Amino acid sequence: MAAAAAGPFSLREVLDAFRRCVTEQREVLLEPYLSGWRGLIRFLQSLGAVFSFISKDAVAKVALLEGHQQQHGFVSLQSLVQHELAAGLAALRARSDSGCRTVLRLHRALRWLQLFLEGLRSGEPRTSVLCTDAYNASLAQHHPWVVRKAATVAFCALPSRDAFLEIMNVGSQEEAVAMLGEAIPYIGNVYSITQELFTQHKLLDLP
Ligand SMILES: CCCCCCCC/C=C\CCCCCCCC(=O)N[C@@H](COP(=O)(O)O)[C@H](O)/C=C/CCCCCCCCCCCCC
C-alpha cells in the first residue's frame, strides 16, 4: 500500500520530513508532508490491530492526497487549496473527496500529535492519559460519540512512555527526549502555516 511503506519507524525520518516541508516563502510542500504522515502511520501500524481503525483512516486520507498530487501535480498545500478554490467555496464544500477536507482532517490530527509529543517530552509516564488529553484538546471535538469512545478505549492499549522512547529508534531515552524537543517546533510550524492558510480561505469547517 503506497500510503504505508515498509520499514521500522524512525522519529528522525519523520522529523526530517516535517523539517523539509516548509519553504522560505512559508509554503508547505506536499511531498515531505505526505512522507511525514507515511512514517507516522508506520508507527501506528506497529502498535497492533487495536489501532487499525485509526491507521486505515489515515492511510485512506494519505492515499487520496497522493492521488490528487499525482493527478494535478500539486507541489504545495497552497497550490492544492488554490486549485480547488477556483471552482468556488460552495462547490468545494459540496465535495466529499476534496484534497482540502482531507488535509483539514490530517491538520487536526497534526495538532493532536504536537500536543501528544509535548506531553511525552514533559515526562508524564501515563501515555493513555497524555493521548486522551491531546485528543480531547484537538480531534475529539470533530468526532461523533462512537469514534470518541472507540479512540479512548484504544488509547488504553498504548505502550508505556519508556517503550515509546525506545520505538523512536533514536538512541538513549535522553537522546529520544532531545529529538522530541527538536521535532515539535517543526510540526508546530507546519500546523501554524496550515491553520493560517485555512483560516484565510474560510476552510476550517469543511464538512
Ligand atoms: C514517538 C511518538 C510518535 C507518535 C506517533 C503517532 C502516530 C500517529 C499516526 C497517525 C495518527 C492518526 C491520524 C488519524 C487521522 C484522523 C483523521 C480524522 O479525524 N478522521 C475522522 C473523520 O474523517 P471523515 O469521516 O470526516 O473523512 C474519522 O472519522 C476517523 C476515524 C478514526 C478515529 C481517529 C482517532 C484519532 C486519534 C488520534 C490518533 C491516536 C493514535 C495513537 C497512537 C500513539
From TrEMBL:
Membrane topology summary: Peripheral membrane protein
GO biological process terms held by the UniProt record: negative regulation of interleukin-1 beta production
Primary location group: membrane
UniProt keyword annotations, A-Z: Cell membrane, Cytoplasm, Endosome, Golgi apparatus, Lipid transport, Lipid-binding, Membrane, Nucleus, Transport
Cellular compartments annotated: Cell membrane; Cytoplasm, Cytosol; Endosome membrane; Golgi apparatus, trans-Golgi network membrane
A Gene Ontology molecular function term of the record: ceramide 1-phosphate binding
Domain Glycolipid transfer protein, first and last residues per copy: 29-169
Signal peptide: none
GO (cellular component) term, any one: nuclear outer membrane
Catalytic activity, as annotated: N-(9Z-octadecenoyl)-sphing-4-enine-1-phosphate(in) = N-(9Z-octadecenoyl)-sphing-4-enine-1-phosphate(out); N-(hexadecanoyl)-sphing-4-enine-1-phosphate(in) = N-(hexadecanoyl)-sphing-4-enine-1-phosphate(out)
Annotated family: Belongs to the GLTP family.
This protein's name: Ceramide-1-phosphate transfer protein
Originating organism: Junco hyemalis
